[in-house]
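Ops channel
N.P.: pipeline sanity check, posting one input/output pair.
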């Protein structure tokens, strides 16, 4: 009877030990299983799914030997803790080198942005109403080595004064010697007010069109008299004036 009781005790102890080992095994296995996380990582438009034991995005990238730079886009952030029982989405977008020419400066920039407009926003470059981007649009896709040229367009009006030369009118005076001249009226130039529509790009005039013209002063002609009388001095010292010369031929007749 005593031996039977001892045997039962030993069996009970063995059952308890086996149960404890089983629980411990499955508990540890379950703990290890729960520590694994699923990550869907996209790098440069290539996506793959990875099982990892990393706790954070940064640890995961390091374990996968994915090198990232300070200007690269990482979503979520390095310190984001990966979650269990669901797929973690991780995006890595590498920055590319572009140049922006604006307001007389060339600005090199590393960027992960998708479009030209997003790069300009990144640099706080604001386009005016008439400004444009040379050879591209705001939705043009960014590629490595792209040069973005911002053209500042200015439209303005300019009022300029122009002078119109006066005419000179010659008036014949039959009572004045041909060697004499007399100014009857001084000439004055005309004055015009011209309004131009000017378009400038980056400080240089591209077009200049006359939009309106107003006469401020009409030109006044210069009037000048000139003489037509001729003068002849005879051998006797007398001076004669005449206006015309006649060539005549005399014929002698005898009877």
């Amino acid at each position: 009877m005593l031996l039977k009781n001892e045997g039962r005790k030993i069996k009970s102890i063995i059952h308890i030990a086996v149960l404890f080992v089983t629980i411990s095994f499955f508990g540890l296995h379950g703990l290890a299983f729960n520590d694994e996380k699923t990550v869907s990582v996209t790098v440069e438009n290539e996506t793959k799914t990875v099982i990892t034991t990393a706790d954070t995005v940064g640890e995961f990238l390091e374990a996968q030997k994915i090198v990232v730079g300070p200007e690269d886009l990482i979503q979520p952030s390095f310190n984001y803790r990966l979650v269990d029982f669901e797929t973690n989405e991780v995006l890595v977008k590498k920055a590319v080198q572009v140049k922006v020419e604006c307001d007389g400066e060339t600005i090199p920039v590393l960027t992960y942005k998708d479009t030209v407009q997003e790069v300009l926003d990144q640099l706080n470059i604001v386009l005016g109403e008439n400004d444009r981007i040379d050879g591209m649009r705001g939705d043009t896709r960014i590629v490595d080595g792209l040069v973005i040229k911002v053209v500042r367009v200015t439209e303005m009006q300019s009022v300029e004064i122009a002078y119109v030369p006066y005419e000179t009118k010659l008036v014949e005076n039959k009572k004045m010697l041909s060697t004499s001249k007399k100014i009857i009226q001084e000439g004055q130039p005309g004055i015009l007010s011209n309004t131009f529509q000017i378009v400038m790009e980056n400080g240089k005039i591209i077009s200049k069109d006359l939009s309106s013209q107003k006469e401020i002063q009409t030109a006044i002609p210069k009037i000048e008299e000139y003489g037509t009388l001729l003068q002849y001095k005879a051998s006797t010292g007398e001076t004669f004036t005449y206006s015309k010369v006649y060539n005549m031929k005399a014929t002698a007749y005898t009877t």
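N.P.: looks fine end to end. The domain at 155-242 is CATH 2.20.230.30 (Resuscitation-promoting factor rpfb fold).
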